[in-house]
């Protein structure tokens, strides 16, 4: 990026009312067959337009073609049986009925590459594409085959690497791996989680990011946050090793969270997508509030490495709220950009 403080979102945006039930996770599609395919493309165009109108610099597909940030990828894999459901506890937080790994996992074909090509045709702006990270994927499944979290995560890392290489070839500039699980399973992250992430980015020619957050603004997450005390120091457990890793960018949650900002010093040298928009609240940030969080982050992140972003995806928000927050993000970044340029 030539521009300093380039803005982006963590990934998802609300879907149009005619495509899926709003403000609902795993919301079923309202269209089918060819209509669904065309509807997803129209929604992607709208999501892009919404970002462009707000002045977002690094754009995404708004995850308009996926029902869920993890499940949609898994649906395209062999070795997973969606009719065999088991209830597991996701990120030690809430129970969900998930599919079962019944044999060796492999990719049947590319999953998001056509969508990425379609987005590439619509804009010359830099594109960021989100994929689930290996550790977050294994946490959203029941494993009756490998019976080893590490072994299954490693297989997923290889699959993600194949997909990521095709996305980069399709013109994606930044590939982001969503790893909210990195905020929960600290020992695993340090023992093999980061190694799996590095396997997923092996040989990639584009930039790479990892997004680690405190989750969507759903009740299970807000209840969990209440148990975390006055200071959220989860990042402290994984940042030192992440700083040493080959990942280019770390995307994290800052605004309205209790993350002590001095923890950002632990990843000095990395580019940082700093979350300056709270996705767990409908109250609208002002540009000045956004600017204030960015100024604080600048104490620990060099200006040329600071990327203003949202705390997490905005899929569960009402559309007009998400839209207002995108505008606040761009306006707040512009305030600090002008200050830096003097
Ligand atoms: Zn997130």
TrEMBL record:
GO terms for molecular function: methionine synthase activity. It comes from the Bacteria. Its EC number is 2.1.1.13. Keywords: Methyltransferase, Transferase. Transmembrane segments: none annotated. Pfam families: Meth_synt_2 (PF01717). The keyword Transferase applies. This is Methionine synthase. Residues 5-330 form the Cobalamin-independent methionine synthase MetE C-terminal/archaeal domain. One of its GO terms (biological process) is methylation. The keyword Transferase applies. InterPro entries: Met_Synth_C/arc, Met_Synthase_cat. It is an enzyme of class 2 (transferase). It comes from Arsukibacterium indicum.
């Amino acid at each position: 990026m030539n521009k300093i403080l380039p803005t982006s979102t963590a990934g998802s945006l609300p879907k149009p009312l005619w495509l899926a039930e709003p403000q609902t996770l795993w919301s079923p599609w309202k269209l089918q067959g060819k209509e669904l395919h065309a509807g997803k493309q129209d929604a992607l165009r709208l999501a892009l337009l919404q970002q462009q109108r707000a002045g977002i610099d690094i754009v995404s597909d708004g995850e308009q073609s996926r029902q869920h940030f993890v499940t949609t990828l898994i649906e395209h894999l062999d070795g997973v049986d969606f009719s065999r459901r088991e209830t597991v506890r996701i990120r030690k937080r809430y129970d969900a009925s998930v599919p079962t790994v019944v044999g060796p996992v492999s990719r049947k074909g590319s999953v998001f590459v056509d969508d990425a090509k379609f987005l590439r045709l619509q804009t010359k702006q830099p594109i960021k594409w989100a994929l689930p990270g290996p550790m977050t994927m294994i946490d959203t499944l029941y494993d009756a085959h490998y019976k080893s979290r590490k072994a299954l995560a490693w297989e997923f890392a290889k699959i993600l690497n194949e997909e990521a290489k095709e996305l980069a070839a399709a013109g994606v500039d930044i590939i982001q791996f969503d790893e909210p699980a990195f905020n929960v399973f600290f020992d695993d992250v340090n023992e093999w989680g980061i190694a799996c992430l590095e396997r997923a980015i092996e040989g990639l020619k584009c930039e790479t990011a990892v997004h680690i957050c405190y989750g969507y603004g759903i009740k299970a997450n807000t209840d969990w946050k209440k148990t975390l005390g006055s200071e959220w120091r989860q990042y402290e457990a994984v940042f030192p090793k992440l700083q040493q890793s080959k990942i280019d960018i770390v995307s994290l949650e800052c605004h309205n969270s209790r993350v002590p900002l001095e923890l950002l010093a632990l990843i000095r040298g990395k580019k940082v997508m700093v979350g300056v928009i709270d996705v767990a609240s409908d109250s609208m940030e002002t540009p000045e509030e956004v600017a204030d969080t960015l100024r604080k982050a600048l104490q620990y992140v060099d200006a040329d490495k600071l990327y203003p972003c949202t705390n997490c995806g905005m899929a569960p928000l009402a559309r007009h709220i998400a839209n207002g927050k995108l505008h606040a993000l761009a306006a707040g970044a512009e305030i600090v950009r002008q200050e830096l340029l003097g």
